[in-house]
Design a protein that fits this description.
The protein has one helix spanning 58-67, and strands spanning 2-4, 7-9, 30-34, 37-42, 69-71, 76-79, 91-93, 96-98, 100-104, 107-110, 118-124, 127-141, 147-154, 163-169, 175-177, 181-182, 193-199, 208-217, 227-233. The longest helix has 10 residues, at 58-67. The strands form 4 sheets. Strands 5, 7, 8, 11, 12, 13, 15 and 18 form an 8-stranded mixed sheet that branches. A 4-stranded antiparallel sheet has the order 2-1-3-4, with no helix packed on it. The protein is mostly beta strands. The two termini are 25 Å apart.
Length: 247
Amino acid sequence: MISAEGNTVPFREGSVLHILPHAGKRLPSFEVSRRGTVLCSWRPGTDVSRIKAVILPLDRLRDIEQRMYRETGEPITLLIPGAGLSGEDVFLIGGAAMPVVSFSPSMIVLRDPDPHVGLRTIASRDFEISLRFFEVALRLSNGRPKTRLMVKIAGLDHPTRHLHLMLQNLDGGSTRLQCWKSGRNQWGRDAVEVRSLQLSPSDVHNGAVERACQVTILQEGSALADIRVVLLELTPSPRVKVPLPHW
């Protein structure tokens, strides 16, 4: 069974779990259980915006989406206002059907049936977009005098532009980040703290790059549970404020 906020449904393909979003807060935790025993839990790194979304043309949104690298195995969120799509449409990636996790007129969340790195195309009717997928590995290095969080990113196929690497701490009760440049932006509004670093194409070797971030561990055993990695391609074009999807 899978449950959230007191609602429980069978854990199988096609089940729908209805939750009530709250403005300014992250989505709730989901628990998977069997015969009353909790097997695992997961909380999406997605907040519910307090502001109304500004609808940009679909081609502009596609440009923004293609700047964002996607982590393999994570749900794929796409902004689709004006695309004429519905939750009943079939979405394909590499010829394989993608289960629809969530749908609204402005946003759809899909599941990848075969996660792997590289440039991959998602298509449905008259809609098509190519996205880049990467793998990330986090580990703690208990050196002296400080503990370091080692961030390794793989699957970067010869980037030609600078990349913006962000660490987002979604909770703050287990770990505090003490590295790089501090600051919150539109990609990290739901995070307790955000640290960012710029990477150049020459920093990438054999499709991978690794960086260290000094951290303070507040709670052993769950130090990495609420750390999210975001990777964006920087463009020379003027800055544009990206509207976030809302419920």
